[in-house]
Amino acid sequence: MTNALVSIQIIPKTPNGEDVIPYVDAAIAIIDEAGIPYQVSPLETTMEGNLTDLLGIVQKMNERMIELGSLSIISQVKIFYKPDGASMAKLTEKYR
What we know:
The protein is an alpha+beta fold.
């Protein structure tokens, strides 16, 4: 059941001060490969799904940054948890 929204801004420290965009693209690819609903915004990406699964995706994103050569990562995460159901559409419907 979809019971959570998790927004993440991932900020990898690159080995030689390179642009972080290719790293961010790789992090978003992890989300895309998971096959869950998500929305990319200018400063963060929001995912929709089961909280346990979403936190696992956050972990995979961080691990991928290390694989790509990041020295460290800051992940700013926001969680909206509602056991009886959560969705991006429902949370933002009044703004559409």
